[in-house]
Design brief:
By secondary structure, the chain is α+β, with helices and mostly antiparallel strands. It is 34% helix and 18% strand.
Length: 462
């Protein structure tokens, strides 16, 4: 039997296949990827092409070697193609407002098209800002899922949040990871599935990036169920169709792994509202920078209300623009409460502005003093009292647990809230809650808090 010896390095090499070979082009390649550009375009220098290919290879190692995600179709035998977008006929064009995008080529294979001129201009303006690498890590993850019809239409938040979650795995130190996270933190009241396209105006850009910033929600879920369960989610996403919806799919996967999406939402709310976690230093710096850049725009609602001293004993109803949507939250900040005991009376509207049942749960975060800590709030319409001696501030995270509607149309949930500071733990309503111990005493029961809060929330409305 004849025996043919093929050197291992040669046998393992993947083929170069240009789907746009009608246009004369040049190419530079790495082990798993190829970067193509038309001969008539400006040349791509070796340093820039090297950064592009290095970024793809970095993503390749994390996605396929470390996380063991499903490989991109056909890349077992041919290199994954990236094209420098151009204006020539029979060549992929750039898209306005996009530094790069994932799509299918004429053969049906996955590809990435780059606006390399714009990426280079950003890099020249701020060297080593990491945006070129961030863009590539993000887009390669889109290619992992291929051209699944599940990601078509308005329910694309999981696609973008997932790609940012994955990019954070490749380079957790990239400064641009905090950009989308900050945009989401500046608009906490937007529903998880918000996708408003590419609106005009700098402040409206917050809406565009909100779905990317929901990667923070996925990271809170990962803390709960582990990385392997999140990888299982991405395997399942490849099998879904156009009629499937992100939130039920995510909920099923997380709950099957023993996790709790509602607790993850409230945890995200606490992290974003207080910025007290040591891992959120970068997020805090980005929020400060963006707030200064955008200014006091009505679109920015980092807090529904800020009250001082005596609180709001007569009650307040936040502005309509700040009201949260489905699977969203907002927070009220109570600075320097004047009494050692705080009373919260939260009166939610029974239904949203679209007539769907309202389900709420929350957290109270006490900063400073002997009672500092975090405790659950049922937000069920009954008074809730707790000790807050010498507190610098109380942050109330108010979360909507009503799942998004199937049509993903905008929706808001209204409420009225009363905040009162008292000198003594009085119980005028006979609610039995005046003897509630301070958070420092409740701390050992923290593991039960999510269950208690959720059960109470689901009993409302009757």
């Amino acid at each position: 039997v004849p025996f043919l010896f093929v050197p291992l390095a040669f046998a393992a090499d993947k083929a170069l296949v240009n789907a746009y070979d009608r246009v004369p082009s040049e190419v530079r390649a790495s082990d798993n990827a190829a970067l193509w550009w038309p001969e008539e375009a400006w040349p791509v220098d070796e340093a820039l092409s090297g950064r592009v290919l290095d970024a793809v290879e970095d993503a390749w190692r994390v996605y396929f070697d470390d996380l063991e995600l499903p490989e991109i179709a056909s890349t077992d035998v041919q290199k994954f193609n990236l094209y420098v977008g151009g204006t020539q006929a029979n060549w992929p064009a750039t898209r306005e407002g996009a530094l790069g995008y994932h799509a299918g080529d004429p053969t049906g294979a996955d590809m990435i098209v780059l606006n390399l001129a714009q990426l280079r201009a950003l890099d020249d303006a701020e060297p080593d800002n990491g945006f070129l690498e961030r863009t590539l890590h993000h887009e390669v993850f889109h290619a992992v899922h291929g051209l699944t019809p599940f990601y078509a239409g308005s329910d694309s938040w999981l696609k973008e949040a997932g790609a940012d979650w994955a990019a954070n795995k490749v380079d957790p130190t990239n400064p641009w990871r905090w950009y989308s996270a900050a945009m989401a933190a500046l608009r906490p009241n937007l529903a998880v599935h918000t996708n408003l396209g590419v609106p005009d105006g700098a402040s409206a850009n917050v809406d565009l990036w909100h779905e990317y910033g929901m990667s923070r929600l996925l990271e809170r879920l990962e803390d709960d169920v582990g990385t392997a369960s999140m990888v299982s989610l991405w395997h399942r996403v490849r099998t879904l169709g156009r009629r499937d919806r992100s939130w039920p799919v995510l909920t099923q996967e997380v709950e099957a792994a023993g996790g709790d999406v509602e607790e993850a939402l409230l945890s995200l709310g606490v992290r974003n509202a207080t910025l007290a976690h040591p891992d959120d230093v970068g997020l805090q710096a980005m929020i400060e920078a963006l707030t200064e850049t955008i200014g006091d725009d009505a679109l920015l609602t980092p807090a529904a209300a800020v009250v001082e001293g005596d609180g709001a004993p007569d009650g307040l109803r936040p502005e309509a623009a700040s009201l949260p949507g489905a699977i969203a939250y907002n927070h009220v900040v109570w600075r320097r409460p004047t009494g050692p005991w705080a009373e919260i009376l939260f009166e939610p509207d029974l239904r949203s502005d679209r007539g769907r049942d309202a389900v709420w749960a929350g957290r109270a975060v006490i900063e400073g003093g002997p009672d500092a800590g975090e405790m659950p709030l049922s937000l069920s319409g009954a008074p809730e009292r707790f000790a807050a001696r010498d507190a610098r501030a109380i942050t109330l995270v108010l979360g909507v647990l009503t799942p998004p509607a199937d049509d993903n149309e905008p929706e808001t949930f209204g409420y009225r809230i009363r905040l009162s500071a008292t000198a003594e733990p009085v119980d005028p309503d006979g609610c039995g809650c005046a003897d509630l111990p301070p958070p420092s005493v409740l701390w050992p029961l923290a593991a039960l808090a999510p269950l208690v809060a959720r059960r109470r929330a689901r009993r409302f409305p009757p």
